[in-house]
Write a structure and sequence with these properties.
Structural class of chain A: mainly beta
Strand content of chain A: 25-35%
Structural class of chain C: alpha/beta
Distance between the termini of chain A: 30 Å
Order of helices and strands of chain C: HEHEEHHEHEHEEHEEEEHEEEEHEEEHHH
Oligomer: heterotrimer
Largest interface: B-C, 104 and 110 residues
Number of domains of chain A: 1
Number of domains of chain C: 2
CATH superfamily of the largest domain in chain C: FAD/NAD(P)-binding domain
CATH architecture of chain A: 2-Layer Sandwich
Helix content of chain A: under 10%
Number of helices of chain A: 1
Shape of chain C: globular
Chains: A mainly beta (101), B alpha+beta (985), C alpha/beta (415)
Radius of gyration of chain A: 15 Å
Radius of gyration of chain C: 21 Å
Helix content of chain C: 25-40%
Chain lengths: 101, 985, 415
């Protein structure tokens, strides 16, 4: 059972939270103009990294707020928690990488 | 049957048993006497019992091999009836008055077991034999026989008479192991102010101090341990947990501990602890030696012999031989000599032994054979002699003995470290796996870390405690460790010995009966990676998880494949460290506590009406049975009554989300498939919500109470999910919208008054708002009072009749319900339950999301395609509806179905085949989703989904339902009042 | 020369101290070039290699395994075989697999111990019963055995079930031909036969990168050197995203954890495989006597092969609630695997956007039962460079078209 550092409530047991999958996924600005492939990418295609994963959680049985975690998917070490809309300190920005925002 | 003299093998003095407390117990039907402080194993040994059970595969007689939880041989069944505990390790069973124990895995008795025939024919059952045979004609032919001979214990078939508790805890430092290292660390950390928990699997703290002949600060080790235990018990920030095994370390150091009760109302308690730091002070397990016929009763670990002697005052033998590959076994020689027990020979596989040891052995009149090993043993019901040879195979003669104490080295208990993903390295000096890289938040000290000497262990532990205190923010002075004033033989250096194949079998895993020959076979067949080797031979896979044998198995594998042991590695250590009762893991979350029951706020009134409750997430009435009625009759009566006059339905669990804010309408317009912006205050609309994949996830009526205030109804089971979904979009995607929402489901009770006389009932109740047809048309809402209570009323209908849904504060529910029943008396008001409601809505062809729809249903499937496609603005799921697959012509569409025979029972779940009188198998064209006998139409009706169904009205299909087939016609799903006249009154 | 496995061969070898058994598989050095390189020597990878060599005439095949063969999910699962699915697409595929399983011991001369003791799905509410009847009938429409059971029937199959548990049992249905088998035997059996048919199985050989030219993979870089091939297939379950990324591909899968648990062994007490969706757990008794338990997956992304304690506890509350007689049994060990889940929890097997790269993924928590058919159909697909007909519904393009095959959706339960 993970111990998750909610940015609002502090370190709590995993059972208080629900998982929201990969973070920083951009919904197409105009969905009706998105091609099937673009829509599928938004809906289904994921990084699924073996290493640091930037992901969303919601503290359902606590403050009910969404937030982001940077968590290692191999060791489960939690590197940082950060707010929705913020960028993780732990990620190096790749040149031209617009995929998080 | 051998007669056992009472305590014939007990020392007259000594030990730490309570001779003033004799305890009577039974083993295999015979009565014995033991003493307070005994374990089952020590008491049986004291009574001269040699054979404790039969081995797993070969049914060979076995004695007791160890004095601890690592026991592979003495596995017995404790207790009787529903309180039996099979496969209990005799050395860990505390003796209690009236204890009943029996051998297992033997028939008819442990002395004569017909299963032994496998042993006599062992050449035909090599490791993995079942991979190669039992295939013809199929496994089923042989399975019954093999299953019967497998399994160790007798399963229980009755309810568990005990119950189990669970506790959650936090602490600064969790110390695993209450031996010398653990005690010192506890004292040091305790004095520094940390909150400390110390878990020790035995009754008493002290570990090996409770039997090894050390002296600390001039005191016998046992007394020193008692003193420290008392000191720690006195410290309010230290929790001592005896009879508690740390079973596993999980993510972020969350740790499980299994505590056995003593004079508690519970049998076992499972602790889930969240320590900031863990100290592993878990000690080491002595390993056996591999030699021919090394599994006989009367062969035990050298340290076990010492423990039985020193702690339990048991004479483990009268004529003892020692076999070893390291120094520590020599202490057994000296301890036995102290009690005048004869040790005739020490067989040491090493070529060189220290002069000091040599001299002491010689002084005792025993032979010391170095560069030697056991070549065979004899004695069917207990060892009576050994044969010895040198390492070249030259025979060195036969010697008699009744106890062979063996030591094959020591394996640190690194299990918990491995659980937490620490790594190990192989140490050539001790020939064991030691901690290498520690996981974050964990330290190791003492023999668990490979530290052999007591003095070094205590110092190491004090240093570890100091570092932990520092790390956790509790700086402390260096702890003063006690001085070891009398020492024992401690060195754990091992010289690895070569093994050869021999005619007599050599066991490498006693619990699963795996031999050296099996290991050779595995290697010969190519199962050389450590995991393949384990799975092929089943080494280490029995109930002891290889605690006394795995290390040797890895060394053997290395030797057979010309790799060093470090290269071979270990198999993965898997929790739990010792087996954990399933009941303890389930805890109290069974029965009524498996899931809470939710009761309607007016539950007591429903009870008075003789409601037949069922669990729909809430306890809700299926129907209300009147005198002499069957449930079916009740349901039909209710459904008829609603259409004939008036009924009342408790819909309190319906989801009620309040959505407020300047952007509330805009927000809901993006969430619903339907247009929300055009809804005027005071009006209601039915809406569908989709997920981004275009699938219908919920439906319900939403009401606009004001420009910036909406009441969103969801299905009762969906409110948490839908509320959560809405929050997600607001918090993560549409963060610029100013909307607040909250789940008010349990704040409001909801009663529906439905039927032609509904208005009459409202009049009788009294309202402060106009509910006439013009003031409150269909799909309109009003806020005011009803029966003097604050209320929100809406004219919505799930029955197809004139219907008012009235929300009042939940705490007034019972009173309001009774007021409705009273007001409705002149109109024969009938309370109706879920079954009747389902009947009414089926007659009207109203969707029941989750029944008529499933996880593949989209708006067009259920007839809402035009709304979905024509809404100009974006909403959740809209884009998905324009994919190829969502626009397929042959998607399953919502239809009505009528059996050609109106009295033909039709049920949900039947499948539809094209044409009359068809038979399965055939490709399904759809299925029946809802069905009932309609009392208002006096025939069976159904709803379903059918491939391209909207264009197939009038077609005849076959329904296939289990072994029945019958014909139906496709019709409109609206069976009753298709023009909705009743609705709009 | 590979020894034949039979009772006679054991008898014969018994008299020579079992010294003449030959290796089950070889340990060759990899060649520089193959016709087909399969990455991943789990059940699917090994089965694919076998069917390629034995039935598709493609023998110049290597299977590269970063650890020891059969050590991933194939070596960790709860060994269930069944074909009781809802949609015809799924039924067609899994029934093919079950039929192959029924003959597998003979086919690969290795006792996989297929025990067709029935898969019993129980339901705990009126609504669930309706859904289950719909499901059971769907199975029959697909020409596969399934039988709806009443409460009383279930008591006969499982005498110790607690019919009146917190969510009382309404009934259920059974597929009698479903059951369990021995996972290691399946992996080892396919490995042995593939090897005998000329396939190179290279263990301790991790793929660290790929070379691509003109939208084709030309070679893989491994810890045992560079290996070229005409065609490549990924059979690495939870690690498919990492391998695919080496060829520049993203996939619609996430890797999650599924736990499995075994108790200490006891004499035969439980003779079927039982699942409950609502009191979520599934349970069987191995032929060694252990009670084998599984439950819901831990759905956060993970490669740790370790699930959460709370899921673990939930599994056992469910088990003890349904089968109170197991309360005093003890958990002996537990572990987990890494499962690659697609959105619709259905597999993705076939071609990718890279011309000569094939994938077999999305097996989620149900890949074991699919091993024979997965291997057979993927072998066909590779050899013919087009999807086997049973695989057509399970291509990558369904995520673009929206033609998902969501078993959980229609049957109302997770599988």
């Amino acid at each position: 059972m993970l111990r998750i550092p909610c940015p609002f409530c502090g370190l709590r047991d995993q059972v208080e939270f629900q998982y929201g999958g990969e973070s920083h996924i951009e919904r197409p600005e105009n969905p009706e103009q998105a091609s099937d492939a673009e829509w599928a990418d938004y809906m289904f295609y994921r990084e699924n990294p073996k290493g640091i994963h930037y992901e969303r959680w919601v503290h359902s049985f606590g403050c009910r707020q969404w937030f982001n975690l940077a968590r290692d998917t191999v060791t489960h070490e939690i590197i940082e928690a950060y707010l929705v809309g913020d960028q993780p300190k732990s990620r190096k920005r790749d040149a031209g990488d617009e995929s998080y925002g | 049957m051998a007669k056992h003299l009472a305590n014939s093998a007990r020392l007259v003095n000594g030990g730490f048993i309570d001779r003033d407390k004799p305890i009577t117990f039974q083993f295999n039907g015979q009565s014995y006497i033991g003493y307070g402080g005994d374990t089952l194993a020590s008491a049986l040994l004291a009574n001269g019992v040699k054979v404790f059970g039969r081995s797993f595969k070969y049914h060979r007689p076995r004695g007791v091999f160890t004095a601890g939880e690592e026991e592979p041989c003495a596995l017995v069944e404790i207790g009787a009836g529903d309180a039996r505990v099979p496969t209990s390790r005799a050395p860990t069973v505390p003796l209690s008055e009236g204890l009943v124990a029996n051998s297992q895995n033997c028939w008819p008795s442990v002395s004569f077991d017909v299963g032994r025939v496998i042993d006599f024919t062992h050449v035909f059952w090599p490791a993995g034999f079942y991979n190669k045979t039992f295939k013809w004609p199929s496994w089923h032919t042989w399975e019954g026989m093999v299953r019967k001979s497998a399994g160790l214990g007798r399963p229980l078939t009755g309810p568990d008479p005990d119950h189990y508790e669970q506790v959650n805890a936090h602490c600064d430092l969790l110390i695993c192991g209450g031996g010398p290292a653990g005690l010192v660390a506890a004292l040091a950390a305790g004095h520094a102010g940390l909150r400390v928990m110390v878990a020790e699997q035995s009754e008493e703290f002290g570990g090996s101090l409770n039997w090894e002949q050390y002296q600390l600060d001039g005191k016998p080790a046992y007394s020193w341990a008692r003193d420290i235990e008392a000191q720690l018990a006195d410290m309010s920030n230290v929790m001592l947990m005896p009879r508690t095994t740390v079973t596993g370390v999980y993510d972020h150091n969350v740790t499980t501990l299994l505590q056995t009760g003593k004079n508690n109302t519970w049998r076992e308690c499972l602790w889930t602890v969240r320590p900031r730091h863990i100290l592993l002070a878990s000690g080491a397990i002595e390993q056996g030696l591999i030699f021919p016929s090394n599994d006989r009763p009367g062969i035990m670990l050298a340290s076990a012999a010492r423990q039985y002697l020193n702690r339990y005052a048991v004479k483990p033998g009268n004529n003892v031989i020692i076999a070893t590959n390291n120094d520590t076994a020599y202490q057994t020689v000296f301890d036995l000599a102290r009690e005048q027990i004869s040790v005739s020979t020490v067989v040491d596989s090493r070529s060189k032994v220290s002069e000091a040891l040599r001299q002491r052995v010689s002084d005792l009149g025993a032979y010391l054979l170095t560069g030697a090993r056991i070549s065979n043993t004899s004695g069917s019901k207990g060892i009576n002699s050994v044969r010895i040879e040198d390492l070249e195979g030259n025979d060195l003669g036969n010697r008699k003995c009744d106890l062979l104490a063996v030591s094959g080295g020591w394996a640190p208990r690194v299990h918990l470290l491995a659980h937490a993903r620490g790594t190990l390295r192989f140490d050539a000096v001790s020939q064991s796996f030691l901690p290498d890289r520690l996981p974050p938040g964990m330290s190791v000290a003492g023999s668990a870390n490979g530290t052999a000497g007591l003095e070094e262990s205590l110092a190491e532990s004090a240093r570890a405690a100091s570092m932990i205190c520092e790390t956790l923010g509790f700086p402390a002075d260096q702890f003063q460790t006690p001085v070891v004033t009398t020492c024992i033989v401690e060195s754990r250096s091992v010289s690895p010995m070569q093994l050869d194949n021999t005619k007599q079998r050599q066991w490498i895993d006693l619990a699963h009966d795996v031999t050296f020959g099996d290991a050779e076979l595995a290697v010969r067949e190519g199962y050389v990676s450590v995991e393949h080797f384990k799975r092929y031979t089943t080494t280490g896979m029995s109930v002891d998880q290889g605690k006394t044998g795995n290390l040797n198995a890895f060394i053997v594998l290395g030797a057979l494949t010309s790799r060093n042991t470090g290269e071979v590695g270990t198999t993965t250590f898997r929790p739990p460290y010792t087996p954990v009762t399933l009941g303890a893991i389930a805890g109290r979350e069974i029965g009524e506590f498996y899931a809470p029951r939710r009761y309607l706020p007016a539950h007591t009134v429903h009870q008075k009406l003789n409601a037949q409750f069922e669990d729909y997430g809430w306890q809700r009435p299926d129907c209300y049975r009147q005198q002499g009625e069957s449930p079916e009759q009740a349901v039909h009566r209710e459904a008829r009554a609603v259409r004939a006059s008036v009924g009342v339905f408790d819909n309190s669990p319906i989801g009620k989300l309040e959505v407020r804010g300047p952007d509330a309408a805009e927000f809901l317009n993006r969430v619903y498939m339907n247009n929300v912006l055009t809804l005027k205050p005071g009006r209601a609309r039915y809406g569908l919500m989709l997920n981004e994949n275009g699938i219908i996830i919920d439906d319900g009526v939403f009401i606009r109470l004001a420009e910036d205030h909406f009441l969103v109804h969801t299905t009762s089971g969906g409110v948490a999910r839908i509320g959560g979904m809405m929050e997600e979009w607001l918090q993560c995607e549409w963060t610029d919208l100013q909307v607040l929402l909250d789940d008010m489901t349990t704040q409001w009770a909801n009663f529906t008054i439905a039927g032609p006389k509904a208005r009459n009932v409202l009049t009788a109740l009294g309202t402060d708002f106009d509910f006439s047809s013009s003031a409150l048309p269909h799909m309109a809402a009003a806020v005011g009072t009803v029966a003097g209570l604050s209320a929100r009323a809406a004219r919505v209908s799930f029955s197809g009749e004139l219907s008012f849904e009235i929300n009042i504060p939940a705490r007034q529910a019972a009173r309001f319900f009774e007021a409705i029943l009273e007001a409705g008396k002149p109109f024969d008001i009938t309370p109706y339950g879920i079954e009747a409601l389902m009947m009414l809505r089926t007659e009207k062809g109203y969707l029941h999301v989750g029944t008529d729809t499933d996880g593949a249903s989209t708006p067009d499937d259920v007839g809402w395609g035009h709304v979905a496609r024509n809404k100009v603005t974006d909403y959740i799921g809209k884009r998905s509806l324009f994919r190829e697959g969502n626009m397929d012509q042959d998607r399953k569409q919502f239809v009505g179905l009528e059996p050609l025979d109106p009295n033909q029972q039709i049920q949900p779940g039947g499948h539809l085949l094209i044409g009359k009188d068809r038979q399965p198998p055939a490709e399904t064209d759809g299925w029946v989703t809802s069905a009932c006998f309609s009392p208002n139409l006096d025939r069976y009706i159904a709803l379903g989904v059918l491939r391209a169904g909207r264009g197939r009205a009038g077609e005849i299909l076959t329904v296939c339902d289990e072994d029945r087939q019958f014909n139906v016609k496709v019709v409109s799903p609206v069976f009753y009042d298709p023009e909705n006249k009743r609705l709009k009154e | 020369m590979m020894s034949n496995y039979s009772a006679f061969s054991i008898l014969r070898n018994a008299f020579s101290g079992h010294r003449n058994w030959t290796r089950a598989w070889q340990d060759p050095e990899p060649k520089k070039h193959y016709d087909v390189v399969i990455i991943g020597a789990g059940g699917h990878g090994l089965a694919t290699a076998y069917y390629l060599a034995k039935y598709q005439g493609v023998k110049n095949v290597a299977v590269l395994e970063k650890g020891y063969l059969g050590g991933g999910n194939t070596g960790r699962n709860t060994q269930v075989s069944r074909s009781n699915y809802f949609y015809p697409q799924s039924c067609g595929f899994y029934e093919h697999s079950l039929k192959l399983f029924e003959n597998l011991a003979q086919e690969i001369n290795f006792n996989v111990m297929l025990s067709q003791r029935g898969i019993l799905s129980v339901c705990n509410s009126r609504h669930e019963m309706e859904m289950y009847r719909r499901w059971a009938n769907a199975i029959q429409m697909n020409g596969i055995d399934s039988e709806v059971l009443t409460r009383e029937d279930i008591k006969k199959h499982v005498p110790h079930i607690n019919l009146d548990c917190r969510f009382p049992i309404w009934g259920g249905f059974i597929q009698k031909r479903g059951g369990i088998s021995r996972h290691d035997a399946v992996a080892w059996g396919y490995a042995r036969q593939a090897c005998a048919a000329g396939v190179d199985i290279i263990q301790q050989c991790e793929v660290t990168g790929m070379e691509t030219t003109d939208n084709k993979v030309t070679a893989v870089h491994t810890t045992k050197g560079t290996i070229a091939a005409e065609k490549f297939a990924l059979c690495v379950a939870g690690h498919t995203s990492q391998l695919a990324a080496m060829a520049g591909l993203r996939l619609p899968i996430t890797s999650i954890t599924l736990q499995a648990m075994v108790t200490e062994p006891v004499r035969p007490i439980f003779d079927t495989v039982m699942m409950s969706a609502h009191i979520h757990v599934y349970v069987a008794q191995s032929d060694r006597g252990e009670i084998v338990v599984g439950g819901g997956a831990d759905i956060y992304n993970s490669y740790a092969q370790r699930g959460s304690l709370n899921t673990h506890h939930d599994n056992f509350s469910a088990l003890v609630e349904l089968l109170p007689i197991f309360s005093r049994l003890r958990l002996m060990r537990h572990w987990a695997g890494v499962c690659d889940m697609a959105y619709d929890v259905s597999p993705i097997v076939g071609k990718t956007a890279v011309d000569n790269l094939y994938i077999s993924t999305g097996w989620g928590t149900g890949g074991y039962k699919a091993i024979p058919a997965g291997g057979d159909t993927l072998a066909y697909t590779i050899a013919n460079d087009k999807p086997h007909k049973l695989l057509r519904p399970f291509q990558l393009d369904r995520f673009d078209t929206g033609r998902l095959v969501d078993e959980g959706a229609a049957s109302g339960v997770a599988h």
